Amino acid sequence: MADLGNDGKGNAHHGAGDHLRPDGSFDGERFLHGLDAIFDSDESNDEAEGYMLRALADAQDAGDDGGQLTVLNELIGYYRSRGRHEDNLPMIERSLKLAAEMGLEDSEAWTTTLINAATGMRAAGRYERAEALYLQALASAERTLRPGDRRLAALHNNLSMLYSETGRARQAVKELGKALDLLTASSPDPGTDLDVASTHTNLALALLGLPAEGGDADTREARTDQAMGHASKALEIYEAGHLQANPHFASALAGYGQVCFTSGRFGRAAGAYRKALGIITRDYGQASDSYQITRDNLEQALEAAHRAGQKEEEPGGGQGGTAGNRHEGESGKSGLPPAAQAHRHRLSGLRLARAYWEQCGRPMIEARYPEYAGRIAAGLVGHGSECYGFDDELSQDHDFGPGFCLWLTHEDYEAIGDRLQADYEAMPQVFMGYGPRERSVRARGESRRVGVFEIGDFFESITGYRQAPGEDKPHEWLLLDEATLAAATNGEVFADPLGAFLQTRQGFKAIPDDVRFALISRRLGMISQAGQYNLPRSLKRADGAAAWLAVDEFARAVASLVFLVNNPLTVGYLPYYKWSFAALRSISTRLATRLGPVAGELESILRLSSAACFGGAGFGEGGKGAAPAAEKLIKSVEMVCAQILEELQAEGLTTSQEGFLEWQRPYIEAHIVSQDPVLHSI
């Protein structure tokens, strides 16, 4: 069945202590950035595991309980997804003990920890313990989550799996019905909603497990027909939402395959299982429980199809591509199309840069500049999608190829800067099949993105400042837009023996609280004016262009607010518009991210705006007109605003119940200590 729990991720390119800042504190953002890199990695599971265990030790050494809990929850998901249940049990108990010691009861973090622990116990077959934890999580969720929170649906979904696995099919169906109702009611567009699709798959499988008793309505044939409807609906949603690259697509395919097998469509079942097996190989590896089960199901389906004289065929619906790159399966046996198989071997820009540094850059410095080897920082930070980890094949047509940055102090740059740049340029221009590096006009000369830099010059070229403004200069902070700060603080630092580069970079990440509160206030103003006030008025005037622009301003302000509420010191800054949603999706998957569900809801709002602003006959919206979409759009905007208000209250930033967010601004600005008028609204 599709599982809505957490999946572990990791990156092996770190050693002990590598997640500690110069002051000895645990760098949670660096750890999570490394976890995200596993999606590009071909590293073995053992190396990924080692990465997380070293991070856990670093968090423990730093005395950071929250950091330990973050790592533990990732480890729990990692072990569970790979069937290593005995290794998982002590991690689960440790996470529960730690969360209790931190006093997290009656908090969202406690609810999340209970869900992850219960899911791990269920996967390990410890059903009695898992059920107790799920029920505890439900009770906690009623106190800590709002009634329409989608995590409630995920909890009902996971509890249904336990009931199904313990032979309580009717209870499983009941829980799934609750989950589907919650998800459908809370989703702006259920027809393209991943969680709705997963729940349809789970319902299909649960229906197959119901006993065929009673009258005609309860016959096995009727149950199978119902199951087929849900399984097919799941594939339709994946196709309509272009979600086939998501790992959970394998669950939908496998569920569809099981329904087909039960109904005697063995050839189609085999096709679905084979496609699912390719995705599982890619995302979870061949040592996982999912791989073993799906492989056995494929063999049974092929044998049954042969006996029945049926040919293997593609599953109906949801037949889009499965491009992605997390794990590599056997060549030619993955079930992926050739283009997707080739895609697996692509290196991300950050991984290519790190490898180029380790194999070419570091040896060159140690050989030619031994007296400076313990002084030079190296990494990849700045402009370009690869610095954010968002690059793909399309990104390789410009400013891509072997390259990294070397950062020197002013004194060292004066002494060896020009000579080191010449030696950098003399390194191999083709590396690991990439290169020479293509440079656009905007990435040459003083604007070059890789090579040798003096630390102050590097940050000045991006921000206009050699170091971050002081806390007593809020007007200078407000001149720095978030996209600029994102470019100055993204990427990875491979080495920094002196800590000078990291210290300067950290200064730009540590936005003063007074400035952050002022920006939160400004974003609330735009959210309320554009989304709550001008959008519905523009729609009533049938001014689709004005409404469209209002949605754009609303989405930009909400996206910025998510980063500001979570604090850029922890999650970084919102990058420029091209990568805003990629960044939102990235942080929304992290444990305890505030306003995490908003990323998906914003995307649904943007989809709805097409029909709401310009819908109607002749526009391709089915001729139903814009009114239904407009009504749904306004409702979705208000739902996001309600979540924002709830989060502001939970963070102690306001005590007001006022739903029009403009009126929350005085409560936010009351937290600003400085009396500087630039920080306060009129």
TrEMBL record:
Residues 304-314 have a biased composition (Basic and acidic residues). Residues 1-23, 303-341 are annotated as: Disordered. Keywords: Repeat, TPR repeat. It comes from the Bacteria. Residues 477-579 form the DUF4037 domain. InterPro entries: DUF4037 (IPR025117), TPR-like_helical_dom_sf (IPR011990). This is DUF4037 domain-containing protein. It comes from Bifidobacterium xylocopae.
